[in-house]
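Thread: quick sanity check before group meeting

JM: Hey all, I'm pulling together slides for Thursday and realized we never actually wrote out the predicted structure for the chain we discussed last week. Dropping the sequence here so it's in one place. If anyone has concerns about the input, flag it before I start.
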Amino acid sequence: MGNLPSVFKDESRLSIEYVPSQLPHREKELRLLEIFFASTLENPGGLSQRVQITGGIGTGKTALSKLFGSRVENTARGRGINLRYVHVNCRVNKSLFTILKRVLESLTVPFPQRGYSDEELLHSLLRYFDEKNCFLIIALDELESLIREEGSEPLYALTRVQEERLGLLQRFSLICIVRRPEVFKSLDESTVSTLLHNVIHLDGYSLPQLEDILNYRVQEAFRENAVRSETLRLIADVAGARGDARYAIEILWRAGKYADSEESKAVLPEHARKAAASIYPAVRRESLGYLGLHERLLLLAIARRLKQTEAAYITMGDVEEAYRIVCEEHGKEPRGHTKIWEFLQELEDIGVIVTKISDTGFRGKTTLMGLPEIPAAILEREVTRLLEAGE
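JM (edit): ok, ran it. Output follows.
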């Protein structure tokens, strides 16, 4: 790339895994989390706290929880309290057993890899906390996936197990992170009653707020004067309709890569336009990467059928027929109607598909599936690439 330096000074500051030391326009919510968990520091073990964080894609739910986790651990350490925060993605860990394993691995606690039931592993974890006088905050991110997979049982176990420990300290608290709180309606009443007291809802960011967030990330990730103010305004305009900071930051990062590829000293509006044109929010790597095999096969089936029919929407019958064909091509046994419906809900939750109830032109009422803002051919290509790579 010639002798020109990169426009970046640390592009890792634009990574989805990176949690900044400040979250512009989420200070109030961060303070509310600290208030909810104040008793955890003031009277360790006296109360098991449960907090719910809700909001759409890119509203800062994960970053908010992780930043709080880092801060509360530091505060506890300064007070001589052994408090740990563990963040678990339930789209990856879809069972109570794998969640508990993730917690144990994070705490570097030795445990048997097999032969333990969920309940035995949970009680083993609690005994360890008692021995070490340790307290834990578990953040269950993308909790919808766990609820769909195992229903009320995991949350019931996590919220009720400590009630059996009469006279003993409460060892862990929960942060439940979901996009839409309606998902809790599928749980039994006794579980719901323990989860709905402390709720923090994050609205989408406004255009000026997105500009502030982008300015902050530019200071962290780019060399001085490498990004023009009009470039940031353009990116904020593009992402503003969604209120999605994650989307805005991804455009910013890719615009920087375009600038480097052209040996430009600055990130120009044209680089941002190219970046925005190359990114479809519905096919971000993190969205598709967490999907299971059959969810990907189903998504491929939807993309293919929409491309073939050139229709805006297809019916459930169309989806199931196309899915069976795709499964046959890949040598997989297709799942049943109920499971397919669960997969469709999962795909809609992450914004890869949209559904609506039919109006005119259909006999009776039926659910229709379509794609938001992405050509079917591009989605087909991306999902096929993932399937072939086995990622």
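AS: nice. The first strand starts at residue 50 and ends at 55. The chain has 17 helices and eight strands.
JM: adding both to the slides.
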